[in-house]
Amino acid sequence: MKPSISVLGTGRMGSALARALLQAGYRTTVWNRTTAKAEPLAALGATVAPSVRQAIDAAEIIIINVSDYGATSALLRSGDVAPGLRGKLIVELTSGTPEGARETSRWAEAQGARYIDGAILATPDFIGTDAGTILLSGAPDPFSENADVFRALGGNVQHIGTEPGLANALDSAVLALMWGALFGGLHAIAVCRAEGIDLGELGRQWTATAPVIEGLVADLIKRTQAGRFESDAETLSSISPHYGAFHHLKDLMSARAIDRTVVDGYDAIFRRAIAAGHLHDDFAALSQFTGET
């Protein structure tokens, strides 16, 4: 028999989670601070709970997708709600920090609940599809026992470890990759606008060079994992040519009054590595200096 599920928080992502569960045939209850945001789900078969406690009482599995762990705490830790969690499975899909996940896990277990923490690596349109990616961490049994529930949320839902903070930590790492690309895109757009280059041409060159960049990132991760920082026969690029080209970018940005806040941060990492004698080492040697300030 399929478990009953409640979704707390029906913004764009929470609504996508609820729709995926409904489409998979799960009895789904939803709650949202602003009730009107939950009402469209009622037309799809969801029950709209008037209170958090009633949503919890209606389900065996509680999926939470609110703004942050502070909001989760405000919902669950009130005197009338917390006692209702005993015996339930809490699936926290709110973005947060690894330490926030660990603390929430400890609190949930103290209430007699089981707990899995997760990070959604997808936009709402991917939820319920084969490409929907969600990382989960915490006790493995609740994951394996409810594999069909998680499969309904996405075809690439993974349990990545027993440490509760792991999903959020890896989420932050992946977001760092994403924001590096997006902020790099902003700088590229600024340079093109300043130099009168059509942005369509930038798009074409990105398409052409993206596989090269993906290969460089994959190589950086592989070499850092192996601790292979010295240049060798398999080095794709050492720090020296990167830093030479980087100077040209800085000079252009200065000449065109383009904001250099982010690239000045890159410069600080370059300088620390070069001062330590790594100018001619593989680019991966920079990974030894990103933890410094």
From TrEMBL:
Show the InterPro entries listed in the entry. Answer: 6PGD_dom2, 6PGDH_NADP-bd, HIBADH-related, HIBADH-related_NP60_sf, NAD(P)-bd_dom_sf, RedAm-like_C
Gene Ontology MF terms: NADP binding; oxidoreductase activity
Keywords assigned by UniProt, alphabetized = Oxidoreductase
**Pfam families associated with the record:** NAD_binding_2, RedAm-like_C
Q: Give start and end of each 6-phosphogluconate dehydrogenase NADP-binding domain.
A: 5-161
Residue ranges constituting the NADPH-dependent reductive aminase-like C-terminal domain according to the UniProt record:
163-288
Q: What is this protein called?
A: NAD(P)-dependent oxidoreductase
